[in-house]
Design a protein that fits this description.
It contains 10 helices and 2 strands. It is mostly helical. It starts with 8 loop residues before the first helix and ends with a helix.
Length: 231
């Protein structure tokens, strides 16, 4: 039997996003057990390894709960309900992109600093793998930004603060509409990759101040490009 190859990071992120949407749409209810990996792999037309990694990402973000010898279940969490309310408000147009980016500017530089302080080489290696996928995806017609989202999620996990992780997850999801055509240009994709590399270098060096500054500069640039595109 031939072993499955390692899943591409972007594919795993897309699997995680599809499962998350199934949960949000009510196709999978709190407390319900997920279908078998083989069934999900067939449903999404991906490898079982990609499904496994996608489930791991959702478990790390708190959406799923793995029970040894029993399976993986949709987590029942009160905090999740308030987080989904925030997400839905943003997605429904309750907040502008400028409002969301302003909050990200408050949170994410500190997240990057904590990730640099806590993460080290192991986290940097995970981030570099995501950057490799982001670089491959740049310029493609089906660029989804999934690697970009995953990059920020890994940083939030490395910050080792569950409250920050919950808040960041809601903001990333709500901010997805900034990747619409006309806003997500090739130039912005390239700028994002360059900024991410600077953040990774700071994380690998354990330089929290440099990571904080790099993230602040990155998000300030994102805000500038969004405002310019929306005029």
């Amino acid at each position: 039997m031939v072993a499955e190859s390692a899943p591409r990071t972007s594919v795993a992120a897309e699997v995680a996003e599809k499962i998350r949407r199934m949960i949000d749409d009510g196709q999978m209810l709190p407390g319900e057990r997920l279908p078998a990996e083989r069934k999900l792999a067939g449903l999404f037309n991906v490898s079982r390894a990609s499904v496994r990694e996608g489930i791991k990402l959702l478990a790390e973000s708190g959406r799923l709960l793995s029970r040894q010898g029993s399976g993986t279940y949709v987590r029942e969490r009160c905090a999740e309900n308030s987080g989904r309310t925030l997400v839905q408000t943003v997605l429904n147009g309750g907040y502008s992109l400028q409002d969301v980016i302003a909050v990200r500017l408050l949170l994410e530089p500190e997240i990057a600093a904590l990730a640099a302080r806590n993460g080290g080489a192991a986290v940097a290696a995970r981030l570099e793998a995501v950057l490799a996928e982001q670089e491959i995806a740049i310029g493609s017609k089906d660029y989804s930004g999934s690697a970009d989202v995953l990059f920020h999620q890994i940083l939030a996990e490395a910050a080792a603060n569950p409250v920050l992780l919950e808040m960041a997850a809601a903001l990333y999801e709500g901010f997805a509409k900034s990747r619409e055509d006309g806003v997500q240009s090739f130039e912005r994709q390239q700028a994002s990759l360059k900024a991410h590399r600077e953040i990774v270098a700071a994380v690998r060096a354990g330089d929290s101040r440099k990571a904080e500054r790099a993230m602040h500069s990155h998000l300030t640039d994102v805000a500038r490009r969004i405002c310019s595109a929306c005029r």
